[in-house]
Amino acid sequence: MKRIFIYSLAIFALLSCNPNSGVIGFPPSPAGGSSPTPTPTPTPTPSTSITDIFVLPSATAVPGEFPESTAQLPLSNFSANNWVLNGGSLYVSYTTDIGPHQIYVGAEGIDGYYVITPEQGEGNEWHFVLVISSDMNFENLVIIIAIVTSDGQVGEATQAPVEVKAAGSGLLQISLSFDNEKDVDLHLLEPNGGHIFFGNRRSSNGGFLDIDSNAGCTIDGVNNENIYYQDGATIEAGTYKVYALMYSNCDTSIPTNCIVTVFYNGEILNIADQTNPAYKTFPVGATNEGSNYVDVEPILTFEITPEMAIEGSNTFEPVEPTASAIRKLSNK
């Protein structure tokens, strides 16, 4: 499977911040959030700016065309998921023998690109993360990256096509992405004790799990999950806890990296003392956790203030579990 790993654990200091909403990055969506079921358009257009499509933490956005290559700079083992969600994240990794360097990151047919210093992993592995706009509505993207040396030489561009799976966004959206084909589950605990996961896809407040991937190791390759609050939902003030649980480790020979991203009103939520997106790695040989979150630390905890809370106008009933969810629940 072709994957695209994009990682950067960095403070979002270079992104714009709205102190009234407690959110970072993209322009806010209209009140009530964006449509719960985005309608994809065929392809990007040159009039679209790269900052409308995705954000790279601690990167600098530059307008204009993607720079042309001036040198052959080796870049190999480029890895990323084949799928992204609007409002989700993409972890990108690659290897190169070149020492400390920067990279250009853009998208085919989109104006502008980012300049970022990637993080170094083990040996000659490098990685970074990009965060997809919650209201991005293309069917597909071609991500482009190129190495830039300290003396300004630009390597040949590496292209990686990704499919965009339309996810619900709403006023509050929580997404999970993971970098290989395993059954990693997204769980959300609401302030009132409501628990949203594959076995209870919709809470009484209107939070809804609309994407559940690789259930029971029946692989679909999406490697993303998503919870959003539907139109008319109640968004309570209080503490929300997000978990990423390894329900079934479909391949114990490889580690799995997870990213959770929280959007509020179309922007990345600014969470005190925590990084959003948040990251977690399941090591080689990680054991199955099922749905038991009690002894597991949340990957992310965030607060909705009284000023951000919404009293919904609708009443929400539980939805029937999917066939795969019923099988998983019967195996508890």
Characterization of the model:
The protein has helices at residues 50-53, 323-330, and strands at 17-18, 23-24, 54-55, 60-62, 76-79, 83-85, 89-95, 102-107, 113-116, 119-120, 125-132, 140-148, 158-165, 172-178, 183-189, 195-196, 207-211, 224-229, 238-248, 256-264, 267-269, 278-282, 300-304. With 332 residues, the chain is mainly beta. It has 2 domains: 17-165, Immunoglobulin-like, CATH 2.60.40.1930; 172-330, no CATH class. Strands 1, 2, 14, 17, 18, 20, 21 and 22 form an 8-stranded antiparallel beta sheet that branches. The chain has a 6-stranded mixed beta sheet with strand order 4-9-8-12-13-6, with no helix packed on it. Strands 3, 5, 7, 10 and 11 form a 5-stranded antiparallel beta sheet that branches. The longest helix has 8 residues, at 323-330. The two termini are 30 Å apart.
What is the residue-mean pLDDT, rounded to a whole number? 87
Number of domains: 2
The computed structural class is: mainly beta
What distance separates the N and C termini? Answer: 30 Å
The ordered string of helix (H) and strand (E) elements is: EEHEEEEEEEEEEEEEEEEEEEEEH
Radius of gyration (CA) equals: 19 Å
The fraction of residues assigned to DSSP E strands is 35-45%
Number of helices: 2
The helix content, as a percent range, equals under 10%
Largest sheet: number of strands, sense, barrel closure: 8 strands, antiparallel
Write the layout of secondary structure elements.
Blueprint: E1 17-18, E2 23-24, H1 50-53, E3 54-55, E4 60-62, E5 76-79, E6 83-85, E7 89-95, E8 102-107, E9 113-116, E10 119-120, E11 125-132, E12 140-148, E13 158-165, E14 172-178, E15 183-189, E16 195-196, E17 207-211, E18 224-229, E19 238-248, E20 256-264, E21 267-269, E22 278-282, E23 300-304, H2 323-330
Parallel strand pairs: 6-13
Antiparallel strand pairs: 1-2, 2-21, 3-11, 4-9, 5-7, 7-11, 8-9, 8-12, 10-11, 12-13, 14-18, 14-20, 15-16, 15-19, 17-18, 19-23, 20-21, 20-22
